[in-house]
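Posting here for the record, re: pyridoxal-5'-phosphate.
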Amino acid sequence: MRPIQMVDTKTQYQKIKAEVDKAVMDVMESSAFINGKAVQDFAVGLSAYIGAKHTIPCANGTDALQIAMMALGLQPGDEVITPSFTYVATTEVIALLRLTPVFVEVDAKTFCIDPVALKNAITPRTKAIVPVHLYGQAAPMEEIMTIAKKHNLYVIEDNAQAIGCDYCFADGTKKKTGVIGDIGTTSFYPSKNLGAFGDGGAIFTNNDELAAKMKMIANHGQSKQYYHDVVGCNSRLDSIQAAILNIKLAHLDEYIVARRTAADYYDNAFANQPKIKTPYRAAYSHHVFHQYTLILDGVENAAEYRNLLKEFLASHSIPAMIYYPVPGHKQKMFEQFNVASQVMPVTDWLTERVISLPIHTELDEEQLQFITSKVLEYIKK
Ligand SMILES: *Cc1c(COP(=O)(O)O)cnc(C)c1O
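Prediction output follows.
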């Protein structure tokens, strides 16, 4: 059996090596390392794929969020609502820009922001909402957009984990996540569903004005060369990464199918196990399974039971991860916002019970069989 990894970028690369190597060589031959043709081609290709009027490539997914927030003209002290149960990048940039992060609960089934908690957190200072499509499934965007419209709030979708995910509206229309809110952001970190061979990110919008502003911010606030209108930053996707991403974008749908096939295998193996909740699949969302995350339920000392499963799997050379062991409202980083005292039973409950199993495009049946047999062996002990 091939060794089991959380993500297997190496085997994935072997399958497209000839194409990728040629594309990288072409960039090297052209010497157009910054903003070369590959970057422009990728922006065009990604816009078409996701259905965005504008795609602005940038250096990483964290910058993408930061640039998006800078473009909205928010003022220090303005409140931005975000789920507590997410990766820190989502929230960090809010604090970095001297805005106030407001943490809210997630839904125990979808792992995404709970619309009721969101509604209750709105104050006269609230300016924006940052829903996260966690683990590859969309947050309930239709409800979120209705709330946002009513209260005149911006919506920035953190789509780092869900690129390619289809959202189905009540009237049957479909859109990809990342183009539903005012702005969408994503990451091409190597382990993401569309991963580069280094860092990368992108911003999506259908709003011409915001697009122009974000392009400017990502490029030192420059309107024309050496004329800088606003304070910006330096955030670029380099041509070599864009060339690789161009090739991988053509495979993204097939990568999603491979992830979903692995998820189906897990779902079947774990069906009707009282201690295991397999990932809930919302009717409104496709699931692109950036992570395959179980909830271990109905056991005493849940966190310890879960942590011992992780150790048991590790002893059989099966990696597993806890995404995320510390929710935002309990991070020391946000102490100044006095959030540690916030009561978030759902987030805390999940934090103690989630465990993510290996999921990627290269898992074979032998590996899946081995992983599931070991999980079942542990929970039946
Ligand atoms: C990966 C990730 C980011 C940040 O992306 P980077 O490219 O690593 O900066 C932001 N939000 C979420 C939810 C992520 O998973």
